[in-house]
Amino acid sequence: MSSPPYLCALAPWREENSLAKAQRRKARKPTLPRLWLGATYATLLICSACTKPLSTTANQPSSSAAPAAPIVRTSADVVKVTPGSMSVSAGGSADGTLVISISRGYHVNANPATFSYLIPTELTPQKIEGVTTGKPKYPLSEKKKFQFAEAPLAVYEGDAQIKLPIRAAFTAVKGMRPLPITLRVQACDNEKCYPPANLNSYISVEVK
């Protein structure tokens, strides 16, 4: 028994409609390469969001400020005195030593000074019972040329020792006692001089 004519006419349309639906379902279904690319892209986005940029200052050397130059107002800022000590027998004599330390880059005028208008380094001892002092013995100076002077000047630099003759009387009480001293100095650098200063110190004298 043959099919009616209208069913025969609809058969090709049904086949075409079924084929079109199959193609649309195939187009909507993601393929494996597309799924792999999508997963890779999502992973890259997550990693880029979690990664922190490296610090550009990690390998840079730390900068340290240069130490500030000391402020010099008077000669006492750059000249220091170290107390001395000595021993002497009753009725005898010996030299006491006083050390002056001058900061690097500075100097003090020697004794005697090169010119009369310059202030020399001068040690003045005080008096104590049973002890007398002689004339201080100043160290040898060195001659140096500076911008503020036309001729080389006699100066002390670094550490310098001044010796002071000390005599103990026969009646001096035995034991240790301080002999006060005053050191007058004027410090200068290569360009200028600073106000003079009186530095107080002492020499410990032991009478035996």
In short:
The protein is α+β, with helices and mostly antiparallel strands and 208 residues long. Helix content is 21%, strand content 34%.
Task: Chart the SSEs and their pairings.
Blueprint: H1 5-28, H2 32-50, E1 79-82, E2 84-88, E3 93-102, E4 107-109, E5 122-125, E6 131-133, E7 142-144, E8 153-156, E9 159-168, E10 175-185, E11 187-188, E12 197-207
Parallel strand pairs: 2-12
Antiparallel strand pairs: 1-3, 3-9, 4-8, 4-11, 5-10, 6-9, 7-8, 10-12
Structural class, by secondary structure, is: alpha+beta
Helix content: 10-25%
Describe the largest sheet: 4 strands, antiparallel
Trace the largest sheet across and list its strands. Answer: 1-3-9-6
Shape: flat
Q: Any idea what the CATH superfamily of the domain at 75-207 is called?
A: Thiol:disulfide interchange protein DsbD, N-terminal domain
Key terms:
Immunoglobulin-like, 2 helices, 208 residues, 34% strand, alpha+beta, flat, four-stranded mixed beta sheet, four-stranded antiparallel beta sheet
Q: What features would you describe in this structure?
A:
- The chain has 208 residues and is α+β, with helices and mostly antiparallel strands.
- The chain has a domain of 133 residues: Thiol:disulfide interchange protein DsbD, N-terminal domain (Immunoglobulin-like), CATH 2.60.40.1250.
- It is 21% helix and 34% strand.
- It has two helices and twelve strands; from the N terminus they run ααββββββββββββ.
- The strands form three sheets. The protein has a four-stranded antiparallel sheet with strand order 1-3-9-6, with no helix packed on it. A four-stranded mixed sheet has the order 2-12-10-5, with no helix packed on it.
- The N and C termini lie far apart (158 Å).
- About 5% of the residues have low confidence.
